Input
Amino acid sequence: MKEIVTFNAPAAIGPYSQAIEVNGMVFVSGQLPIVPETGAFPEGGIAAQSRQSLLNAQAILKKAGLDLSNVVKTTVLLADIADFAAMNEVYAQFFSKPFPARSAFAVRDLPKGALVEIEVIAAR
Output
């Protein structure tokens, strides 16, 4: 296993890695919408937070020498399923066909009161 670490995405806030690479697969931990330079969430609600979560995942993939076209699976966690359409609009700006497989769930709470958390799995 190889740990992937970048300062262009938020540091892990617990006992986990930003990402791990094993056998040509990169597993990016769930990304909260934290702006790395400020440590805060962006203003603008679910759209801004979705964009930031995806930018964070993108930065980690870049450190691994990959980009979003390498993503094969995503998982989206939403604090409110009513935000699904707005998240999906932003999400569609980051991915193109063939789109990665995806799961999306509403959860009771997310760390730090985030509206969204997004994890990705990429393949070389």
About this structure: The beta strands are 2-4, 19-22, 25-31, 71-78, 101-106, 116-123. The two ends are 15 Å apart (CA to CA).
